[in-house]
Amino acid sequence: MITTLRFIALAVVLSLCLGCNKQDDSPIDREEKVYRAILLDGNRFIKKEKYQEAAALFSEAISKKPDKFEGYLNRGIVYLYLKRYDQAIVDFTEAIRKDQTLAIAYANRGIAYDQLKKQRQALSDYQKAIALDPEVGKGPGFMERFLHNKPKMPDVRDRAEFLENTLEPNAK
User: Fold this and answer.
1) CA torsion sign, 124 to 130 to 132 to 136?
2) What are the domain boundaries of the chain?
3) Do 69 and 95 form a contact (C-beta atoms < 8 A)?
4) 4-38 pLDDT, tens per residue?
């Protein structure tokens, strides 16, 4: 009998606690969780190299939270992989408009400009990215693959220095 009462008391306490958690899950919290889940799913598709599916998910994230930069940033990265550089520039520009401290967005937009042979714009973005975060683009990441397609590649700083030295001095 005592064991049964303890079990009932424990069940009541647990149900109250679970009920409290449900009340704390406001529509805003649920909306944010859905948004984050969509972003995670999009990143999973990138890892599987399913770029069209990833782009669709990031577009969905943008439609749910157009005021946030993450959807634009991630879709821009997908567009880099798809070699849709003009669209990548649009998305990175929008991400930057939403958060002007995103060094990675400047670096990625620089890559898109670089691929379109718009070296002055690329240099400007690389310099801005480096000013915001001197470590941006270091290591064997996707940015280097886009820049040079070599096994051992320079970082964003090296590419910026290269462009500074190759562009006409009065044209900068």
Assistant:
1) positive
2) 28-171
3) yes
4) 434 444 443 334 444 444 455 677 788 899 999 99
**CA dist., res. 115 & res. 149, Å (int):** 12
Tokens coding 49: 């190299």
Q: Where are the alpha helices (DSSP H) in the chain?
A: 2-24, 27-47, 51-64, 70-81, 85-98, 103-115, 119-132, 142-148, 156-166
Instruction: In whole angstroms, give the CA distance from residue 122 to residue 2.
Output: 75
Cα-based torsion angle of the residue sequence 98, 115, 126, 147 in order, rounded to the nearest 10 degrees: 120
pTM, rounded to two decimals: 0.72
Tell me yes or no: is domain 28-171 CATH 1.25.40.10.
Answer: yes
pLDDT of residue 162 exceeding 90? no
Please, what sign has the CA dihedral across residues 38, 43, 49, 52? positive
Measured distance CA(172)–CA(169) in Å, rounded: 6
